[in-house]
UniProtKB/TrEMBL annotation, chain A:
Transmembrane segments: 28-47, 67-100, 107-125, 131-150, 183-202, 222-243, 249-268, 300-319, 339-367, 379-398
Role: Part of the binding-protein-dependent transport system for D-xylose. Probably responsible for the translocation of the substrate across the membrane.
Protein name as it appears in the record: Xylose transport system permease protein XylH
Membrane topology annotation: Multi-pass membrane protein
Compositionally biased tracts (Polar residues): 428-446
Region (Disordered): 422-446
From TrEMBL, chain B:
Membrane-spanning residues: none
Protein name: Sugar ABC transporter ATP-binding protein
Alphabetical keyword list: ATP-binding, Cell membrane, Membrane, Nucleotide-binding, Repeat, Sugar transport, Translocase, Transport
A GO term for molecular function: ATP hydrolysis activity
Organism: Orlajensenia leifsoniae
Claim: Transport is one of the keywords in the record: yes
Subcellular location field: Cell membrane
SMART domains documented for this protein: AAA
Gene Ontology CC: one annotated term: plasma membrane
Primary localisation category: membrane
Length: 446, 516
């Protein structure tokens, strides 16, 4: 059968690498955005004469953006389920001030303060989840209210002033992996890097073994080798950079928290029943409920989880800033939401990945960072960030609408014609078909 | 009343094709001026397609044949151009905006404006006049959502009158109305006839057709069967039914020797309310039973309450439960939500696979396991390998045409999507499968395969409830058929005693209830 051979061909090589970054169904935007990230990093590497990929700068990027990336992890789950959370900045600020006050006024030990912070996040999340899931108020409204309530709450508790936190607490936001061993670099960082690289190798080997056992088609060996070498290489190179920075620095603790959360939540969203349910509810709520998914529980969980992560982000920020202030977390929600959408999530829900959102967040981070390094002002940074968001989502929306005549009409039609041979037969309804015919006819004429 | 015998509308040899399906084949329809013309036919016979051709939803050029309206050949580009010519269609789902007032709705899209500024005083006066013409005594400032469905229907007609309608098309106008409102509406339609406005009425309610129509055109399988003149001949419901169902039953069904066991599933006095309108009962005191290995048909016309009955049994996924009991394997069980229903061994394959059956963003393997993830999980962790091998098994055994189970279900054809949905529910190991229009919108070859699957399930000792609007399908594969009319079960007929006429009779009236 012709479709069978052509699609086996398609699933090899390039598509496989793409799939690795894009999750189950190939998602062009997610793959494209990874390319954009590499281009942006290389571009600024050149423009800043090598400053971008210097150890000091990389550590800076991690320290400055880890809390946004942590928010993006929660936000992508909220957005997959078809909601939004505007309150994360305020929730982070609120938790920050509660924790700072608790340590300053009650002399709460810092480990307990962290537990308190998580509990505050859980309580806020339960509150917002209740309104969204059980009362049915749109999350946009609930969290817009939350944005006001918890911003006000922060300023009420802190009397609109900054509250300093003890120095032990700052470890989670400004600390590094401690130094040990005889080497002139951070041994701990390198061990982590090597573990990461080893896991990449193991995982690829495991996948190939399973595929062989199941009798399904594996990609050619060279694809696996390229994949492993590239990924493991990037991890080791990054570890080396972090390990060889200024004495006393290494991979930041906030970065370790971030990596741990990325691994945990990638696993949850990809491989657990609960994770599947989030996609199911966002993809088609009616079909999900008719398959036995309790959609309200899913809504409640994603909203609650978001606030817990927001409180964690808030504490990391306070630890780094050494104090909790009334303006902490302003505008974070926008950065987090932008990261998620740049990272390939769909506005209508059902699509998105944790890894994709992290890549999207890194695009924002390196853009910000690079522009600052070359001396661009905050005004220009905002304009460029806005345009990047618009273009990333615009390209995606447009590519889903191919077939309509547009300025790219001819190009897209040609591409479609070429792709048509590869695509399996689609069932088209009567009304769509004539439109497509017109479109191709028009593009041929012009 | 001497009716003018010149035609206002002639549709000649209309043929409309969709990819792979000929929806209309050489259909002709002649409507005389000042008459009420009924169009009858089974669900899917092509009635709505014909009306969409007439009203310009399918523009000229997408069908063949010609339309002559008021003596002129017309080619409508869109609904707007047919409305300008004086043809207005009123759909089953009313096109009114609930938050706007009666006046605003009547003039929506046709605002009475001078230089872009709407003259509300004039509009209101005109609205009052139009309301009087349709016999609706209501404040024109009231919001649509605050008046009943019957009155909303009248507002639709007032809106049509405002457009200077010459030919009014009503699609199931009384489907949602009670007896009184229906009567008022039918009187109005007859009254309009006297004022020179012809009507085309699509209805399943044969008694109403008998009452108001002057002539009837029967459509079956996309072809005109006959036009009956009520004034001239002796027309009764039986005569109409014969025209609607009189098709020969070809051997489109696989052979099967049923092996029927004991009753294992019973529903008693099941009553369900409409989800929004509390006083409306969509299922009224229905009782039924299913035996092991038995395929039980549920016949009824659109809106009879079959889907509502099925979904409310399936973990109360429709409406609000009022009363009734479910007994399975001799034990009374209560199914409060869908997951309880699944655990109790029920499966419901919905009639709308794209909206209710599948997440079109998913791939085949994720879709197949989605209703019982527990089965392939260790604790909370889904085992990808088992997911893949389970899905691969179903792909092979049900012959789902896709290169691999990694393919997105959105890219599959209707028949293959339906197989994925069936696989999804077979995967839950149900004892009772409720299949709601499982062959809707799929081609003949795939239908045969679906029938084979259904029969194989029954052969395994599972019970099957098959909801279908196609009587030949029910007669072809069911062992016993319940008929449903207005939320009530009106007949319980072994397939050996059933024929289209008897079924249609108990599907269209509660009074002729089958007495056992």
């Amino acid at each position: 059968m012709s479709t069978e051979t052509s699609s086996t061909k398609k699933s090899g090589g390039f598509a496989d690498i793409k799939k690795m970054f894009g999750g189950g169904q190939s998602n062009l935007r997610q793959f494209g955005i990874l390319g954009s990230l590499i281009v942006i990093i290389l571009l600024f590497q050149v423009l800043t004469n090598g400053l971008t990929l210097s150890p000091t700068n990389l550590i800076n990027v991690v320290n400055q953006y880890s809390y946004i990336l942590i928010l993006a992890i929660g936000m992508v789950m909220v957005i997959i389920a078809g909601h939004i959370d505007l309150s994360v900045g305020s929730v982070a600020a609120f938790t920050g001030i509660v924790v700072a006050k608790a340590m300053a006024d009650w002399n709460l030990p810092w480990p307990l303060a962290i537990v308190l912070g998580i509990a505050v996040g859980a309580a806020i999340g339960a509150w917002q989840g209740f309104w969204v899931a059980y009362i049915g108020v749109p999350a946009f409204i609930v969290t817009l209210a939350g944005m006001l309530i918890f911003r006000g709450g922060n300023q009420f508790i802190g009397q609109s002033t900054s509250v300093a936190v003890p120095s032990e607490f700052t470890y989670i936001g400004a600390g590094y992996i401690p130094d040990f061993g005889p080497f002139p670099f951070s041994t701990g960082t390198m061990i982590l890097g090597i573990l990461g690289a080893a896991w990449i190798v193991y995982n690829e080997w495991h996948i190939r073994r399973v595929q062989k056992k199941m009798g399904s088609t594996s990609s050619p060996v060279w694809v696996s080798v390229v994949k492993v070498v590239l990924l493991a290489g990037v991890i080791l190179a990054a570890a080396w950079l972090f390990a060889t920075g200024r004495v006393g620095t290494s991979f930041p603790i906030s970065g370790i928290i971030l990596v741990a959360l990325v691994i945990l939540y990638s696993f949850i969203t990809r491989s657990t029943i609960g994770g599947r349910h989030i996609y199911a509810v966002g993809g088609n709520r009616l079909a999900a409920t008719l398959s036995g998914v309790k959609d309200r529980r899913v809504d409640f969980f994603v909203m609650m989880n978001m606030s817990v992560l927001a409180s964690l982000a808030g504490m990391i920020y306070v630890a780094r800033a050494t104090a909790s202030g009334p303006q902490d977390g302003n505008g974070w929600e926008l950065d987090a939401i932008a990261s998620v959408f740049i990272g390939g999530a769909a506005v209508s829900g059902g699509i998105g990945t944790v890894i994709g959102s992290i890549v999207g967040g890194l695009v924002m981070a390196f853009l910000n960072n690079g522009l600052q390094l070359i001396g661009a002002g905050a005004d220009l940074v905002q304009i460029i960030k806005g345009l990047v968001l618009l273009i990333a989502v615009g390209v995606d929306v447009w590519s889903k609408r191919q077939g309509r005549p547009s300025i790219f009409g001819i190009w897209s039609q040609r591409r479609k014609a070429r792709a048509a041979a590869d695509e399996p037969v689609l069932e088209s309804s009567g009304t769509v078909l004539p439109t497509n015919d017109n479109a191709s006819a028009e593009s041929l004429r012009s | 009343m001497p009716s003018e015998q010149h035609p206002i509308l002639e549709m000649r040899s209309i043929t409309k094709e969709f990819p792979g399906v000929k929806a209309l084949s050489e259909v002709s329809l002649t409507v005389n001026a000042a008459e009420v013309h009924a169009i009858c036919g089974e669900n899917g016979a092509g009635k709505s397609t014909l009306m969409k051709v007439l009203s310009g939803v399918y523009p000229a050029g997408t069908y063949t044949g010609e339309i002559v309206f008021r003596g002129e050949k017309v080619e409508f580009k869109d609904i707007r151009s047919s409305e300008n010519a004086g043809i207005v269609i009123i759909h089953q789902e009313l096109a009114l905006i609930p938050e706007l007032s009666i006046t605003e709705n009547i003039f929506l899209g046709n605002e009475l404006a001078h230089r872009g500024v709407i003259d509300w005083v004039e509009a209101k006066a005109k609205a009052t006049e139009l309301l009087a013409r349709v016999g609706l005594d209501e404040d024109p400032d009231r919001q649509i959502k605050n008046i009943g469905v019957g009155k909303q229907q009248l507002v639709e007609i007032a809106k049509a009158l405002n457009k200077d309608v010459k030919l009014l098309i009503l699609d199931e106008p009384t489907a949602a109305l009670n007896e009184n409102d229906s009567q008022h509406l039918l009187d109005l339609i007859r009254g309009l006839k006297g004022k020179g406005i012809a009507s085309i009425m699509i209805s399943h309610k044969l008694n109403e057709i008998e009452q108001v129509a002057d002539s009837i055109t029967i459509i079956r399988d996309g072809k005109t069967i006959e036009t009956l003149d009520i004034a001239a001949g002796e027309i009764n419901e039986d005569r109409i039914i014969r025209g609607m169902v009189g098709r020969s039953l070809e051997s489109r069904f696989p052979d099967r020797t049923p092996n029927i066991g004991d009753v294992f599933f019973e529903v008693k006095d099941w009553t369900v309310q409409h989800p929004q309108v509390a006083e409306r009962l969509v299922v009224k005191g229905s009782s039924l039973y299913v035996r092991r290995g038995e395929i039980v048909g549920l016949a009824g016309l659109m809106g009879a309450g079959r889907t509502e009955l099925a979904m409310s049994l399936f973990g109360r996924s429709y409406g609000s439960f009022v009363s009734g009991t479910i007994v399975k394997d001799g034990e009374e069980i209560e199914l409060r939500d869908v997951s309880q229903a699944i655990d109790a061994g029920l499966a419901y394959v919905s009639e709308d696979r794209k909206v209710l059956g599948l997440n079109l963003l998913d791939d085949i393997k994720a879709s197949i396991v989605s209703a019982k993830l527990k089965k392939i999980s260790r604790g909370q962790v889904v085992d990808d390998m088992r997911e893949y091998s389970v899905a691969e098994e179903y792909r092979k055994s049900l012959r789902i045409k896709a290169p691999s189970v990694d393919m997105g279900v959105g890219k599959l054809s209707g028949g293959n999507q339906q197989k994925v949905v069936l696989a999804k529910w077979m995967f839950t190991d149900p004892d009772l499968l409720i299949l709601d229009e499982p062959t809707r919108g799929i081609d003949v070859g795939a239908k045969y395969e679906i029938y084979t699957i259904i029969q194989a399930l029954a052969a395994q000792g599972k019970g099957v409830i098959l909801i279908s609007s196609e009587l030949p399908e029910l007669l072809g594969i069911a062992d016993r058929i319940y008929t449903v009319f207005e939320g009530q079960i009106t007949g319980d007929i072994p397939v050996t005693d059933a024929n289209p006429e008897t079924l249609m009779k108990s599907m269209t009236s509660a009074r002729k209830r089958v007495q056992n």
